[in-house]
Design brief:
By secondary structure, this protein is α+β, with helices and mostly antiparallel strands. Among the domains are: 66-136, Orthogonal Bundle (DNA polymerase, domain 1), CATH 1.10.150.20; 171-214, Helicase, Ruva Protein, domain 3 (Orthogonal Bundle). Helices cover 42% and strands 22% of the residues. It contains 9 helices and 8 strands. The strands form 2 sheets. Strands 1-2-3-5-4 form a 5-stranded mixed beta barrel. The protein has a 3-stranded antiparallel beta sheet with strand order 6-8-7, with no helix packed on it. Strand 7 and strand 8 form a beta hairpin. Helix 7 (171-181) runs antiparallel to helix 8. The termini are far apart. 38% of the residues are buried.
Amino acid sequence: MIGKISGRIDYRGADHVLIDVRGVGYVVYVSDRVMASLPGNGEAVALYTDLLVREDILQLFGFTTLVEKEWHRLLTSVQGIGAKASLSILGALGAEGVSKAIALGDWNALAKAKGVGPKTAQRVANELKDKAPAVMAMGGGDVAVPDDDTVIEPDTSARAPRKVTPPQNPAQAEALSALVNLGYAPGDAAGAVMEVITPEMSTGDVIRAALKLLAPKG
């Protein structure tokens, strides 16, 4: 399994890039959002990858964060969602947008992606809702390719710069864990947290606000 590619961009296609890794070129398919974030030809790049293996084809798909890669893996586990549809969803919403849409059961947001119909979007939201908390909790440690909003650190293994993304509010994962420990279903807990959380909120604030949403309406 090829889990990460670090090298330099040789050229760009419509939906893929060729990354030169010490003289070996890897074709990596990416979403429109990832493509727009990549540096120019000859520049250093690092992407997490997922390898699709079939009898007649081997394809690499690239992602700027582990959360994005994990959502791709989960999306393609749903009937009717192939790699192309997954990249379309991630390209339209981004990893955070997918997390929010699925946590809240917002299939309409998923259906905005090209090639994803309402029935398929509803299936995605229903099947993956309870898996959202674990993916959302991964977000704090993501590493991705450079842009203007990140800190550059050296990648000595491939002599390529990479970025550390600004961490999400750590209260997100802590509040999710607390609510699940209180007996709430993971999907319900994730939806409530995503609806109330803001960057400056403490864990206690998030939990209290989420509990108000989760309280029985009477």
